[in-house]
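User: Okay, second chain of the day. Same drill as before: sequence in, structure tokens out.
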Amino acid sequence: MLYDVEKISELTKLSKVTIYKKLKLKEIKQYIVRKQGKAYVDEEGFKLIKQGLNYDDKLNEELNDIDIESDETAFTVTDKEDLIKVKNDLIDSLNEQVFFLREQLGVKDIQLDSKDKLLENMQILVKDSQRKQENDIPMLEAHFEELDEKIGNIKKQMDERKENLESDKGFFRFFKRTK
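Assistant: Same drill. Structure tokens below.
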């Protein structure tokens, strides 16, 4: 079964923003399926997200439940330091992702600008070709009328020649008979 962000948000009772942040983690990326531009997570990915949430809840509980007055103070303090170190590492990796995504956005902006310019040029070319076609149509019509006229003239000339040849044949026949 595939879960979308809304469904995961409902099941875990967390905001969609939190779920989107979880989807960006390296461990989850391999379980993401994209269909029609929408991100879905399969069963394994959903289980990992839930496990991650449980781990985060445990970390927060442990941070809140540290008892500094007990004999185990040194042990709990090092756990707290480890937890802080893990959270700082997570923050650093998220900052790196933000930086990387900002760079990608800059590149995409440049690409979009160039696409816009190309589109604008294409529109100008299309308008020019339409104007040219509008000008070419009357010229072609005039040319075809001229050709029709010439063909008509040639046809008349051929008919006249044919008549002349036939009349010439008749005249020569007259001379042949008199001999």
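Helices lie at 5-12, 16-23, 26-29, 43-64, 73-178.

User: Thanks, on to the next one.
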